[in-house]
Amino acid sequence: MADDDSNKRPSLLVAAYMEKRAQLLRFFTMRTSSSSEAEDIVQDIYLRIAALDDAPIETPMAYLYRLGTNLMLDRMRTRRRSAARDDAYYQTFVAGTSPDAEADAPSPEAAWEARSRLERVLAAVERMPPRRKQVFIMHKIEGLSYAEIAASLRISRSAVEKLMMAALRDLTSGDA
Prior knowledge:
The protein is mainly alpha-helical. It is 80% helix and 0% strand.
């Protein structure tokens, strides 16, 4: 019976979070200069600690701030990777074009074929089961690593790999 009662009480970490949520929100708003980004980080903190067992933590507030800082840094790294990827694309395909860019431009037929191929790929992505589609977008569009996706979705890295392989099979099948 005591186990049932302890399952109904919030953990000490969750209790500390609930008590200091406004402080955490102010702290991360100042660090990120964005109230919506801070709100996302504070919400992610809650999601992480709610999933934890009630392990004894000597300084719950220090743990919450450290967890939030790590989440904030992960978000910054993801944005940097995305910006670097966008910059590499720009340097390769836009800035790296010759002064005769019009001469290098694809023919109308090639542009139409590329647009048609893109529409087939987008349709194939839309037909994917929700989890497969989510993993594909997180990896290929958002630039997250398999490990980051696994941690975010609380699944194994192997599951992420299998979902990505299935997504790539979907895209390379005759429909895409």
